[in-house]
Amino acid sequence: MDELTAKTAANIPSQESAELSDREHAILLAAENEFIKKGFAGARTTTIAAAAGVTHSMLHYYFRTKEALFERICHDKLSEMATKVFATLLEDHAPIKERILSAARRHFEFVKVNYRLPMLLLTEYRQDPGRLDGWFGSVKNLLTSMMAQFNAQVDEAVKRGEIVPIDMMTLFIDILALNLTSVAFAEPASMIASLQLQEYLDKRLEENLLTIRKRIEP
Predict the structure, then answer these.
(1) What is the DSSP string of the chain?
(2) How far is CA 132 from the centre of its chain?
(3) What percent of the chain has pLDDT over 90?
(4) CA distances from 158 to 31, 86, 151 (A)
């Protein structure tokens, strides 16, 4: 009995930790949907709490303010993009051209899943630029840090004739814009082109990759 009691007690912290993590995840998902539907000003923490299945006081226990909740969502999305997209560029076991194309593909897939997020960020930036100053600063710092490591590899690849000389920061901004535009207008564009949405997105991805390939190949 004592051994069973000891094992049960040992499991309590991990069980509580899992419950806390599940609640936090539920709150973040509910908040993201609320912000996207109503914008920052229109979002209500009471609605978020109800959708997440937690009390309003519990929501404030995890995230003290609506601002903190919004900032956390933006931070998490940036971290996700860094992991899925930018880290690909620094995997030096693959040719640099293929890493660039792989990063572009992963970014397209990331935007496709989070297609409503860019419009939210753009709307909030127009209404209150200061709210996103920190987030855009983090994006700039992330890109600058990555470029500091990546540019040396780019220079070596140029010397070997693998890619043409090109300003990588400009290229990455072009990739971001190309993918964002493709996904943002996918629904009306697919209707005009008489294509199923997924078929249209697949075609756009391949066209975007072809455009990028032409920019970097000798």
Answers:
(1) -HHHHHHHHHHHHHHHHHHHHHHHHHHHHHHHHHHHHHHHHH--HHHHHHHHTS-HHHHHHH-SSHHHHHHHHHHHHHHHHIIIIIHHHT-TTS-HHHHHHHHHHHHHHHHHHTTTHHHHHHHHHHH-GGGGHHHHHHHHHHHHHHHHHHHHHHHHHHHTTSS----HHHHHHHHHHHHHHHHHTHHHHHHHTT--HHHHHHHHHHHHHHHHHHHH--
(2) 15
(3) 55
(4) 45, 20, 10
* pLDDT on residue 136: 84
Regarding predicted confidence, which is higher, 123 or 49?
Answer: 49
Q: Residue 163's CB: how many other CB atoms inside 10 A?
A: 19
Residues 6+ apart with CB under 8 A from 124: 39, 40, 131, 132
- The residue behind tokens 């693959």 is 94
Cβ burial, residue 144 (10 Å; 0-12/13-18/19+): exposed
Q: What is the pLDDT of residues 13-24, one digit of tens each?
A: 454 455 557 889
Query: Model confidence over 146-168: pLDDT tens digits?
Result: 888 888 889 999 999 999 998 98
- Mean pLDDT computed over 113-130: 86
**Closest among 168, 169, 176 to 108, alpha carbons compared:** 176
Question: The tokens of 25 are what?
Answer: 């995840």
Length of the chain: 218
